[in-house]
Amino acid sequence: MHIYVNGRNIEITDAIKAYVKEKIGKVANHYDQIQGIEVVLSVIKNPSASGKHVAEVLCKTNSGTIKVEEAAESMYASIDLLADKLDRQVKKLKDKTLGSDKSSIRTDAVEEAEAEKEEAVEE
Fold this sequence. Notes:
The protein contains 3 helices and 4 strands; from the N terminus they run E-H-E-E-E-H-H. Helix content is 46%, strand content 28%. It has one domain (2-122): Ribosome hibernation promotion factor-like (Double Stranded RNA Binding Domain, 2-Layer Sandwich), CATH 3.30.160. It has helices at residues 14-28, 75-98, 105-122, and strands spanning 2-8, 34-43, 53-61, 65-72. 20% of the residues are buried. It has a 4-stranded mixed sheet with strand order 1-2-3-4, covered by helices on one side. The chain starts with a strand and ends with a helix. The protein is an alpha+beta fold. The radius of gyration is 23 Å and the shape is elongated. The mean pLDDT is 84. The longest helix is centred in the C-terminal third of the chain and has 24 residues, at 75-98.
């Protein structure tokens, strides 16, 4: 799995890149179906904007794509918020894909009742 870090209106330093890989890399430990993660860090140069540091993630998995965006007053804060949000989304996707075993309460109850009838007949 690769983590790509790009910047708009900001120069990506080694410290920021290492911080992003550390925070976003923890998300990859939860779900092994992640193919690649693209991170785009940008700064809005409008003086009247409130959240000037924006971090976006595009996480490509085998079952779909997750896009998350967060904004904050500092780049490190936006990366932290982004990592938390992406973590929740990946866990939700994992539960959705792995938890869908297509079983139903009704069919399980019918199968159990039939098994009990067969046991009673055998005795």
